[in-house]
Amino acid sequence: MSNVTLSKSQNSVSPLAFVRESWRQAVIYLGFAVLFIIFSITLRDQGFLDINNLLNIVRQTAIIAIMAVAMTFVLAAGEIDLSVGSLAGLSSVVTAMVLRDYGLVAGIFAGLCIGSLAGVVNGFLTTKIGIPSFLVTLAAMGICTGTSMWISHTASIPILNQTYAFLFGGGDIGPFPILLFWMAIIGVTGHVALKHNTFGRRVLATGGNETAAQYSGINTKVIKARVMLMSSMAAGLAGMLYAGRLQSGRFQFGEGDEMSVIAAAVLGGTGLAGGHGTVVGSIIGAIMIGMINNGLTLHGLEYSQQLVARGAIIVLAVALSKKN
């Protein structure tokens, strides 16, 4: 009798729960569509729908989207990484310097190594020493910024290698910026890893309930170390893309990006408390932020007004998508 009653209760609650969950997951996409329609109507004469303007939005948001993909894993595992912006700046400087002195292959290798090294250190301090990732990456933010300023003497390091500039952010394949292909490759890889791979399930389990995950045989420390490594490697790649797109390495590249990256992931449906996340949503969140910036600029709003409007839109979208 009790089994029958329980079954009936589950059946009666399930449709409502399904609707709530579907709404929470769909609100970012609905919000994106609504904003796109509003800007398309109100900015028709300003050229919002012009193909060049839309491609510019992609160029301006692709690097944030790439870092947001990795940040999705970090947040889903119950951690955070505040060093991605400053690490991107350091990576751009190191890549430019090595590229200038030792050539293309060495420059690419150096940029990748910087991201990997930072990820190993962040992961070790977080999982082995036990320092909270917030404090570890907050310290890493200052270290990366200071190091990039120190080795570059706060000067811009020019990149003259056109092959590098084309491959890492500055080139176009037909009408499409190569940054779009980088974003697509990282996005597809991240989506498959999170939703269709054992590693992704372990990440979500670790963030959802670390104790239960440990009892089920998951080495949560290894999982957290890996997501910290992924985040730093994505930041290293972001710095390389900044350097290629702007044909120079500068410590200012990536400044403040950590907030945009985290906002994109949270806006896309990834919870700060861990346990759930979506790579596609994070990419849409990044593009949505870029679209808001672009639309408000075309509307002629001052920068201070843009900050207020953008913040209000993001808070509203996150509030609507929040679980009750």
Automatic annotation (TrEMBL):
Membrane-related topology note: Multi-pass membrane protein
Coiled-coil residue spans: none
Subcellular location: Cell membrane
Keywords: Cell inner membrane, Cell membrane, Membrane, Transmembrane, Transmembrane helix, Transport
Species assigned in the record: Cohaesibacter marisflavi
Membrane-spanning residues: 26-43, 63-90, 102-125, 131-152, 164-185, 225-243, 264-291
Gene Ontology MF annotations: transmembrane transporter activity
InterPro entries registered for this protein in UniProt: ABC_transp_permease
Cellular component GO terms held in the UniProt record: plasma membrane
Top-level taxon in the UniProt lineage: Bacteria
Name the UniProt record assigns to this protein: Ribose transport system permease protein
